[in-house]
Design a protein that fits this description.
Bound molecules: zinc ion
Helix content: 55-70%
Distance between the termini: 42 Å
Structural class: mainly alpha
Number of domains: 1
Oligomer: single chain
Number of helices: 13
Largest sheet: none
């Protein structure tokens, strides 16, 4: 049976890309917006997705106080890449069946399928209820994550995050004595650059881990999948690009295994460890054998 296109997802992706493209309109520009975009790639892409959703929630590569784990989960939720439970479930299934037929997003079908095509269809065995029951029961035991899952509350949180950018810009400009029109323009610039464009940039860097790093790069380890280490994706994602290393030892909090494999996500976790905010930190297994 051919898969039905999720028109709501397609329209949503197109619309959000078009809103992000407003960054090319000079009226929406502000340097504060640019700074928030760059800072947001670290805060949302690295802290939210790589450290929070991926290393902490999916692989339990370290342990953090419950309040901090939830903060990471909220930052991840603001990336509009699914709820914590469903994201975790999809990614655990990816590791379970990496580059096999049941991998949710393997480029064995095509690059575009792995990058975002898989997001536009929803086979019955990929429904959130089925997936989270199979792969993310531990996540849903936390009532906060269960709440995010219910009634798609996670999307409301992500939209509220965008609105917060506008409100912060609008109100801070008013507080500094600007008129309403100037304050509106400043709020809109933060909404576009810090909120929507940042979301789109982090989408594509995260999606590149599914597409690019299963196609191009070098391999330190002979894993049964096609995972690769790709330094461009590594730099854009805070260490996620060392994806062959990660498939060789998914439970390790450290993705860069060689000294020059720069891994900001790992540096963040190590700093948290020193501050007493991360414990039981898993390192690459001593039994890993390089090719
Ligand atoms: Zn992979
Ligand atoms: Zn993983």
């Amino acid at each position: 049976m051919p898969l039905k296109l999720k028109t709501d997802a397609l329209l949503g992706f197109v619309l959000i890309h078009l809103i992000a493209a407003l960054a090319f309109v000079p009226w929406f520009f502000s340097w504060t917006g640019v700074v928030l975009l760059v800072a947001g790639i670290y805060v949302f892409g690295v802290l939210g997705i790589s450290v929070g959703y991926h290393r902490l929630l999916t692989h339990r590569a370290f342990v953090s106080p419950r309040w901090l784990e939830r903060v990471f989960a909220v930052i991840g939720t603001c990336c509009m890449q699914f709820s914590p439970a469903f994201w975790v479930a999809v990614h655990r299934r990816h590791h379970h069946f990496a580059d096999e037929e049941k991998d949710p997003h393997s480029p064995i079908k095509s690059f575009l399928w792995a990058h975002f095509g898989w997001l536009l269809v929803r086979p019955p065995d990929m429904k959130p209820a089925v997936m989270t029951d199979r792969y993310a029961r531990d996540i849903l035991r936390d009532p906060f994550y269960a709440w995010l899952e219910r009634h798609k509350n996670w999307i409301k949180v992500a939209i509220a995050c965008w609105v917060a950018y506008f409100a912060a810009g609008f109100l801070s400009a008013l507080a500094m004595g600007e008129d309403v029109a100037t304050a509106f323009q400043f709020g809109a610039s933060l909404f576009i650059w810090g909120g929507v464009l940042r979301t789109v940039v982090v989408w594509h860097t995260t999606w590149s881990v599914n597409s690019v790093t299963h196609m191009w790069g070098y391999r330190n380890y002979s894993t049964p999948d096609d995972s690769r280490n790709n330094w461009i994706v590594g730099l854009l994602t805070g260490g996620e690009g060392w994806h062959n290393n990660h498939h060789a030892d998914p439970s390790s909090a450290r993705f860069g295994h060689r000294w020059w494999e720069f891994d900001p996500g790992w540096l963040t976790i190590r700093a948290m460890q020193r501050l007493g905010l991360a414990s039981k930190v898993s390192l690459p297994s001593a039994s890993l054998k390089a090719r």
